[in-house]
Design goal:
The chain has 140 residues and is α+β, with helices and mostly antiparallel strands. Helices cover 31% and strands 20% of the residues.
């Protein structure tokens, strides 16, 4: 999987052209994080933009309300930039869960993220299940 870096100045003509081109494109990759001055990090995932510092998610320009754990899960997956994470890793990172027990918590939250961020949550474009392993974010 290749990641593309897209630097866009906020409020610029470049941003307007990029936004118009993003839309519902099915070829839009997960972009490498944009690192702005002051440590602000943003990710783009098709029509979804995630601002880590502001803890804000927008889809097609509209704010998407995520529960704190949903945002934490999304952030943990995005920071891996396409690498898969096991359910146990995500439980430790997001929930500080240490016991090696089976739980559907991660699966339930992934389902909610897909419902809120994907065009069709039953056919996810970006949030993928890695069979018998965990999850990853990115293009197939």
């Amino acid at each position: 999987m290749s990641f593309q870096h897209e630097m866009i100045r906020e409020g610029s003509a470049d941003e307007s052209r990029a936004a118009a081109g993003r839309g519902f494109r099915h070829d839009a990759p997960l972009h490498a994080p944009e690192r702005e001055s002051g440590g602000r990090i943003r990710y783009r995932l098709g029509a979804v933009e995630v601002d880590i510092a502001a803890r804000q998610v927008r889809r097609d320009g509209e704010t998407v309300d995520l529960a704190p754990k949903e945002f934490g899960l999304l952030e943990a997956l995005l920071r891996r930039e396409g690498a898969a994470a096991t359910r146990s890793e995500l439980l430790r990172e997001v929930w500080s869960h240490r016991a090696p027990v089976a739980t559907r918590t991660v699966d339930t939250h992934i389902g909610e993220l897909r419902r809120k961020l994907e065009d069709d949550s039953s056919q996810p474009e970006f949030i993928h299940t890695v069979r018998k392993w965990g999850y990853r974010i990115g293009r197939r």
